């Protein structure tokens, strides 16, 4: 039986999940957080579901060994490929996955046209098709895969001219098609909000799912009687690539650079 003071394991293919980690820490400041960035295998967006499932089994096993009381897949691509598999493997373990915010976007749009920026893997998945079937019958949804964005963000590039050009090539067609609501369906993309704000009219809503994931974690921990009563221990980071690279960009994407270790698998 896990204890309230046990940590929560949070993972992403790389640094994108830090956008979710920040929301979790804001909502649940008493929780001790562990973060695995699978930077040695990023991007997940262009990899096969089998490959991603295998990575997730390793990362989940690692969190389990660390005594994590719950796990958050702070990655849309990992969720569509692997959350069902993990739920089968660990039926009693609280697991939180995430999906593009189609439901709130369909409720919010006034033009009736919604754009989704996400990885190829997420947009091609059966889980995403089911999400559209369920929540997007009355609106037009235009999907836009965004290869190349994640790789740039992974290097700490949030503003270069090349990035601006690439992002604009993905966003402009959506705006031209009348989208008034843009879904950020990949956890890396919230780091592009400042750049997006320069290219998207102010009346276009930009929606991501980080805060909703934090609320879902809160609900789930509460239901299991596992909410920490604090104080939280230090956040610890692991990466499957060179720890030095993550150490270098953490201060840019995270408010402080806590310990970074090598992910053993
Ligand atoms: N951050 C991830 C997501 O939310 C995946 C990025 C990638 O590795 O392609 O989809």
UniProtKB/TrEMBL annotation:
Binding-site list for substrate: 12-13, 44-45, 76-77, 187-188
Positions annotated as active site in the UniProt record: 75, 186
Keywords: Cell shape, Cell wall biogenesis/degradation, Isomerase, Peptidoglycan synthesis
Regions crossing the membrane: none
Pathway(s) this gene product operates in, as recorded in its UniProt entry: Cell wall biogenesis; peptidoglycan biosynthesis
Pfam families reported in the protein's UniProt record: Asp_Glu_race
Alphabetized HAMAP family for the sequence: Glu_racemase (MF_00258)
Reactions the enzyme catalyzes: L-glutamate = D-glutamate
Catalytic activity, EC: 5.1.1.3
One GO term (biological process): regulation of cell shape
Function: Provides the (R)-glutamate required for cell wall biosynthesis.
Name of this protein: Glutamate racemase
NCBIfam families membership: glut_race
Family: Belongs to the aspartate/glutamate racemases family.
Enzyme class: isomerase
A GO term for molecular function: glutamate racemase activity
Domain of life, source organism: Bacteria
């Amino acid at each position: 039986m896990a204890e309230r003071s046990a940590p929560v394991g949070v993972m992403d293919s790389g640094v994108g999940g830090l956008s979710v980690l920040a929301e979790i820490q804001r909502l649940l400041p008493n929780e001790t957080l562990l973060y695995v960035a699978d930077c040695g295998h990023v991007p997940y967006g262009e990899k096969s579901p089998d490959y991603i499932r295998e990575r997730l089994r390793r990362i989940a096993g690692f969190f389990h060994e660390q005594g994590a009381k719950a796990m958050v897949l702070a990655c849309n691509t990992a969720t569509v490929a692997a959350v069902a598999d993990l739920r089968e493997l660990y039926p009693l373990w609280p697991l939180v996955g995430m999906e593009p915010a189609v439901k709130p976007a369909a409720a919010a749009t006034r033009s009736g046209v919604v754009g989704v920026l996400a990885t190829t893997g997420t947009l091609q998945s059966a889980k995403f098709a089911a999400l559209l079937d369920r929540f997007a019958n009355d609106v037009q949804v235009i999907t836009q895969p965004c290869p190349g964005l994640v790789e740039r963000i992974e290097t700490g590039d949030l503003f270069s001219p090349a990035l601006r050009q690439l992002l604009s090539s993905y966003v402009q067609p959506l705006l031209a098609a009348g989208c008034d609501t843009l879904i950020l369906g990949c956890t890396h993309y919230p780091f592009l909000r400042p750049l997006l704000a320069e290219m998207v009219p102010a009346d276009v809503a930009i929606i991501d799912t980080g805060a909703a994931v934090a609320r879902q974690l809160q609900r789930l921990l509460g239901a299991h009687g596992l909410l920490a009563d604090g104080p939280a221990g230090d956040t610890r980071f692991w990466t499957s690539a060179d720890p030095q690279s993550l150490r270098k960009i953490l201060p840019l994407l995270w408010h402080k650079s806590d310990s970074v270790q090598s992910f053993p698998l």
